Amino acid sequence: MSGMRHGGLYLAGTLVLSLLLMLLPLPSGLEPLKPYWPALVLIYWALESTDRISLGLAFSIGMIADLISGVLLGEQALRLTALVFIVLRIRPRLRFFRMWQQVLAVAALLLNDRLILLVVRLFAGEAVPPLIWWGAPLVGAALWPFLFLLLDDLRSRLRIQ
């Protein structure tokens, strides 16, 4: 029972931290390169704990992210729901990829996320973003091995299944 409680707190803590990192301001030149932290954390949890991650949780985290960041309501909810759906579908293969293969898969997932964001924003009437805007998925993919190892190490130290 204690492991379940710690696991739930650890999951909630990592998701809250990802939302806070999403709000962290960067210099204006680096802002387009900021990784999408909630997506990276949800990818990790979808790979490691399918019984705790659902499309409803991804939608809820997305709605919270929409509310705290002030973007179009439902934008991030749609993106995170689509992302988690794809990860849960390919989880059996993705889980056993080597790290460099996971980096490529995460890059593809984050690029797909950017494509969804682009379509939503174009329908909302916004202008086409600059080319540097496409760098954020690559930054997120480059951070993936470090984030994966950090979260996995903390999870094993806390003995969370």
UniProtKB/TrEMBL annotation:
Q: Indicate the transmembrane segments per the record.
A: 53-73, 103-125, 131-151
What InterPro entries does UniProt report for this protein, alphabetically?
A: Cell_shape_determining_MreD, MreD_proteobac
Task: Please state what the protein is called.
Answer: Rod shape-determining protein MreD
Query: Is the keyword Cell membrane in the record?
Result: yes
Q: How does it sit in the membrane?
A: Multi-pass membrane protein
Q: Tell where it localizes.
A: Cell inner membrane; Cell membrane
**Entry similarity comment:** Belongs to the MreD family.
Pfam families, per database record = MreD
Q: What does this protein do?
A: Involved in formation of the rod shape of the cell. May also contribute to regulation of formation of penicillin-binding proteins.
Q: Report the source organism.
A: Frateuria aurantia (strain ATCC 33424 / DSM 6220 / KCTC 2777 / LMG 1558 / NBRC 3245 / NCIMB 13370) (Acetobacter aurantius)
